[in-house]
Design a protein that fits this description.
The protein has eight helices and seven strands; from the N terminus they run αββααααααβββββα. By secondary structure, the chain is an alpha+beta fold. A four-stranded antiparallel β-sheet has the order 1-2-5-4, with no helix packed on it. The relative contact order is 0.17.
Length: 275
């Protein structure tokens, strides 16, 4: 297995690099909030019937752009790690591989396309790996969990984000208002009010956290004469993914799932060779 280990070594090196990139992303994100680059200021609504939160113009620091570039590099490393793995397996069977240009780690949402488009891959790697790789395919995971409402699988996310970052635009990040804590009091223009909140028609609205913009609005039925409040506002980063936003913590799940997949496939090959 010594020579075979050398064939798989590039995969493990790149996986380790992805792990370090993940830590760098979280450290950068943590420091971003420590440095208070995104500031949020409360003020009364123009008609005084409620209050609003506004952000500063934090675009000058290119905060989200910097994290976006780092995430794009991280996702690309995860995807290419899988491709390196397939190339390493092909070298175990025939070194050098007969058709290296056809080698990549297959990721398919559709079973028919998988069967049609992967023949040149499986002809070049150990046969025992085919069923193992099928287990991880998004179409197969979905087929085995038909009642699951979750259509997001790690391989799908890595594939989609890598394609977006590589072929379209850098991964887009958005800031989301996560939590508001407040303490203090209001003084209202009408001291004889019975209810200050219009619950029937809605009393608060959340907006995307963008530079120099309103991100939250709380409406009251009565005018606020004086506001003496302390606000603690929590904001987090999310990835703009088709049809939804993904919390940045999804990046940890992606690494763990890819690392597990790689280790499982390498173990299958090792056990076969020991027989």
């Amino acid at each position: 297995m010594e020579n075979n280990s050398e064939f798989l070594k590039p995969t493990l090196i790149k996986l380790e690099r992805a792990r370090k990139q993940l830590l760098e992303i979280y450290d950068f994100n943590k420091n971003l909030w420590k440095e208070n680059k995104i500031q949020i200021t409360p003020k009364l609504c123009v008609d005084k019937k409620g209050y609003e939160f506004y952000t500063n113009n934090y675009t000058e620091d290119n905060l989200l752009e910097e994290i976006s570039l780092r995430i794009g590099e991280y996702i690309h490393n995860l995807r290419s790690t899988l491709d390196n793995l397939i190339f390493g397996f092909a070298r175990i069977k025939t070194n050098p591989p007969t058709k290296p240009i056809k080698l990549s780690f297959p990721i398919f949402e559709n079973e028919n396309y998988f069967v049609k488009d992967t023949k040149e891959i499986f002809n070049q790697i150990p046969e025992i790996l085919k069923n193992e790789i099928i287990k991880y395919q998004p179409y197969n995971v979905r087929k085995n969990n038909p009642k699951s409402e979750n259509s997001l699988y790690s391989l799908s996310i890595v594939q989609t984000l890598n394609n977006i970052d590589k072929h379209r635009v850098p991964i887009i990040l958005v800031a989301n208002l996560n939590e508001i804590k407040f303490d203090g009091s209001f003084e209202f223009d009408n001291e004889d009010f019975t209810n200050i909140i219009d619950e029937k028609n809605g009393f608060c609205n959340f907006y995307k956290v963008l530079p120099n913009s309103k991100i939250f609005e709380f409406r009251t039925l009565e005018k606020i004469e004086k506001m003496n409040m302390n606000f603690d506002v929590s904001v987090d980063i999310a990835i703009d993914y088709p049809n939804q936003n993904l919390n940045i913590d999804i990046l940890k799940n992606l690494y763990n799932d890819i690392a597990l997949l790689i280790n499982d496939l390498i173990l299958v090959v090792k056990k076969t060779e020991e027989k």
